[in-house]
């Protein structure tokens, strides 16, 4: 029996397309043409001898073969990426002080940073999970080397815009609390970009509101929203199971106004970073491509 060697580039296109919900978006993220990504999918289906997915309206749904391949694809790509990282910098040493928004803490700590630490055991990573003002202050004062933050319209000397993500009204799937008036809100205390935009949107639309709870942590906000105490405003990054963003059907109701989008940015302290900082930055950028 002829052995089949799966194409890693094709697997990356497959995984990225499913993660992003669109192979056109995957093509842009991977800097490839849409036709090249489609050819990758066709090649994989030829190699495994059966279809991997189907389209249901605008959504992509994995078939049984696709579900099985997805698990192996993630493992193969992770092993490949670790090998490449390790060979590029066999003796990488140093310390990187990284600041993160809570929205990305769990995802990046459990996946990206854990993998980075395995590949580069000589690099010490100091992680600070904090709110925007503290992250920006850490860069300005020289206490952080990198900071993944929300753009506030005032970029620092070395700021890279990674993505623009829409803000969403978010609530419990089981609750109808978004229909209450005044609208019960669960927010960070001021200053907070999400709080500012939410209250401004409600005021413009003439929707009465009441802040029923404030929290110093995102975990506290998620817990209160899951309990059905109110709604909050956030992007979909790190959205817990059991919570849902109100879709455009709600936006058509003037009582829940549309919200603006927000830039996700990466601040860097130095013009010329250390090799360890540069390597961690590249790793973060790769992991955030599928958001």
List keywords for this structure.
291 residues, five-stranded mixed β-sheet, three-stranded antiparallel β-sheet, 23% strand
- Summed up, the helix count is 10
Oligomer: single chain
Strand neighbour order, sheet with most strands: 4-3-5-12-6
Tell me the β content.
Answer: 15-25%
The beta-strand count equals: 12
Q: Which term fits the overall shape?
A: globular
Low-pLDDT runs of 5+ residues are none
- Run of helices and strands: HHHEEHEHEHEEEEHEHEEHEH
Largest sheet: 5 strands, mixed
The computed structural class is: alpha/beta
Describe the structure.
This protein is 43% helix and 23% strand. It has 291 residues and is of the alpha/beta class. Strands 4-3-5-12-6 form a five-stranded mixed beta sheet, with helices on both faces. The protein has a three-stranded antiparallel beta sheet with strand order 10-7-11. It has a two-stranded antiparallel sheet with strand order 1-2. Helix 1 (8-20) packs across helix 2 and helix 1 (8-20) packs across helix 3 (34-48).
Chart the SSEs and their pairings.
Elements: H1 8-20, H2 23-29, H3 34-48, E1 53-56, E2 59-62, H4 64-88, E3 94-100, H5 102-119, E4 123-129, H6 132-140, E5 146-150, E6 159-166, E7 168-172, E8 183-188, H7 193-205, E9 209-215, H8 218-226, E10 232-234, E11 243-245, H9 248-251, E12 261-268, H10 275-287
Parallel strand pairs: 3-4, 3-5, 8-9
Antiparallel strand pairs: 1-2, 5-12, 6-12, 7-10, 7-11
């Amino acid at each position: 029996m002829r052995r089949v060697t799966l194409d890693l580039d094709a697997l990356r296109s497959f995984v990225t397309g499913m993660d992003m919900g669109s192979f056109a978006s995957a093509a842009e993220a991977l800097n490839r043409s849409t036709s090249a990504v489609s050819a990758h999918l066709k090649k994989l289906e030829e190699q495994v001898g059966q279809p991997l997915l189907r389209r249901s309206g605008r959504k992509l749904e994995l078939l049984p073969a696709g579900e099985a391949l997805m698990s192996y694809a993630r493992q193969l790509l992770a092993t490949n990426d670790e090998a490449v990282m390790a060979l590029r910098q066999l003796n990488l040493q140093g310390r990187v002080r990284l600041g993160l928004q809570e929205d990305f803490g769990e995802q990046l700590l459990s996946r990206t940073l854990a993998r980075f630490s395995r590949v580069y055991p000589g690099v010490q990573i100091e992680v600070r999970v904090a709110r925007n003002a503290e992250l920006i202050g850490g860069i300005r004062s020289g206490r952080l080397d990198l900071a993944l933050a929300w753009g506030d319209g005032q970029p620092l000397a070395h700021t890279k815009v990674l993505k623009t993500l829409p803000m969403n009204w978010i609530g419990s799937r089981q609750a109808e609390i978004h229909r209450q008036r005044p609208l019960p809100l669960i927010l960070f205390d001021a200053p907070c970009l999400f709080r500012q935009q939410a209250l401004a949107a409600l005021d413009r639309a003439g929707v009465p509101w009441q802040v029923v709870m404030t929290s110093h942590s995102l975990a506290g906000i998620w817990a209160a929203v899951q309990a059905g105490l109110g709604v909050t405003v956030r992007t979909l990054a790190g959205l817990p199971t059991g919570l849902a963003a109100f879709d455009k059907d709600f936006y058509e109701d003037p009582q829940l106004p549309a919200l603006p989008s927000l830039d996700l940015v990466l601040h860097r302290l130095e013009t010329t970073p250390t090799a360890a900082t540069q390597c961690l930055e590249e790793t973060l950028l790769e992991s955030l491509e599928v958001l």
